[in-house]
């Protein structure tokens, strides 16, 4: 069974950075992909970003120019979720990390997609068990968590909820293999899954060292790269992911655990409130405006 057999038509809900790259990954693997968002401007930016990234892959020799052009042709954009849902064989939601928003999206997807369609969330912290009931088909819901940048990163975390069927997981694993990724399969749900729990521990310690005046973000990143072999230091990585995403991950985890240790560090709070969200806003821990 190929990935295209598993789900010929893919719907990505959310036209942000992750949704756009996830859509490009599936289009590159041969799927017809529709990206849905409530904001036309977001869809316009998504179209430009996906086109640019796929074109560059062709220019760099990662695929032929003809393959890049075909991948771009398989992409479509819409604000009409209900209409797009009716033809979707697989859906992945990549909206903002807000529980109520995701529950609303999954309720609408449950009403308008075919009963056989698998509904996945790309959420990095919110387990699908908190979303699945809204869909009316919790056995066909799970987390399928891509990493940024999705076109480059090989790993995808696959996380069942207690009601996810074995058939659903088997289908998702075949789909992930078919798009050229490697699945990290969890046995049970835990907030933050595996990679983000490891990443959050490193990030929080880096922020703590900076807040205590031990070293600057640049020097902490230098230590991570040169001494630990990380391709990016924690501060540069947070800026790439987006400090709003990091902030909301902390908040979502705290809402699930009630542990004050899971709240965002104060230095992160300050940047979030100031609108310094990393590369996307031009400034985060570092200044990218120049």
From TrEMBL:
<dbReference type="InterPro" id="IPR022694">
    <property type="entry name" value="3-OHacyl-CoA_DH"/>
</dbReference>
<keyword id="KW-0560">Oxidoreductase</keyword>
<dbReference type="Pfam" id="PF02737">
    <property type="entry name" value="3HCDH_N"/>
</dbReference>
<feature type="domain" description="3-hydroxyacyl-CoA dehydrogenase NAD binding">
    <location>
        <begin position="10"/>
        <end position="186"/>
    </location>
</feature>
<protein>
    <submittedName>
        <fullName>3-hydroxyacyl-CoA dehydrogenase family protein</fullName>
    </submittedName>
</protein>
<dbReference type="Pfam" id="PF00725">
    <property type="entry name" value="3HCDH"/>
</dbReference>
<dbReference type="InterPro" id="IPR006108">
    <property type="entry name" value="3HC_DH_C"/>
</dbReference>
<feature type="domain" description="3-hydroxyacyl-CoA dehydrogenase C-terminal">
    <location>
        <begin position="192"/>
        <end position="288"/>
    </location>
</feature>
<dbReference type="InterPro" id="IPR036291">
    <property type="entry name" value="NAD(P)-bd_dom_sf"/>
</dbReference>
<dbReference type="InterPro" id="IPR013328">
    <property type="entry name" value="6PGD_dom2"/>
</dbReference>
<comment type="pathway">
    <text>Lipid metabolism; butanoate metabolism.</text>
</comment>
<comment type="similarity">
    <text>Belongs to the 3-hydroxyacyl-CoA dehydrogenase family.</text>
</comment>
<dbReference type="InterPro" id="IPR008927">
    <property type="entry name" value="6-PGluconate_DH-like_C_sf"/>
</dbReference>
<dbReference type="InterPro" id="IPR006176">
    <property type="entry name" value="3-OHacyl-CoA_DH_NAD-bd"/>
</dbReference>
């Amino acid at each position: 069974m190929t990935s295209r057999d598993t789900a010929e038509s893919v719907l990505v809900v959310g036209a942000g950075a992750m949704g756009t790259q996830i859509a490009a990954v599936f289009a590159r693997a041969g799927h017809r992909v529709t990206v849905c968002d409530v904001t036309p401007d977001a869809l316009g930016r998504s179209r430009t970003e996906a086109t640019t990234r796929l074109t560059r892959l062709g220019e760099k020799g990662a695929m032929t120019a003809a393959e890049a052009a075909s991948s771009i042709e398989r992409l479509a954009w819409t604000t009409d979720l209900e209409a797009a849902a009716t033809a979707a064989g697989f859906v992945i939601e990549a909206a903002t990390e807000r529980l109520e928003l995701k529950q609303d999206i999954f309720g609408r997807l449950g009403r308008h997609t075919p009963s056989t369609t698998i509904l996945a969330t790309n959420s990095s912290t919110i387990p699908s068990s908190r979303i699945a009931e809204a869909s009316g088909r919790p056995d066909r819901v799970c987390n399928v968590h891509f990493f940024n940048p999705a076109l480059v990163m090989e790993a995808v975390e696959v996380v069942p909820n207690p009601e996810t069927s074995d058939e659903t997981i088997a289908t998702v694993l075949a789909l992930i293999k078919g798009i050229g990724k490697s699945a990290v399969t969890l046995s049970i749900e835990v907030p933050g899954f595996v990679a983000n729990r490891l990443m959050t521990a490193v990030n929080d310690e880096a922020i703590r060292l900076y807040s205590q005046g031990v070293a600057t973000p640049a020097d902490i990143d230098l230590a991570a790269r040169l001494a630990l072999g990380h391709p990016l230091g924690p501060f540069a990585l947070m800026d790439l992911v987006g400090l709003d995403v990091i902030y909301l991950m902390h908040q979502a985890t705290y809402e699930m655990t009630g542990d004050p240790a899971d709240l965002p560090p104060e230095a992160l709070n300050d940047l979030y409130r100031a609108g310094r969200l990393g590369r996307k806003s031009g400034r985060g821990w570092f200044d990218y405006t120049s």
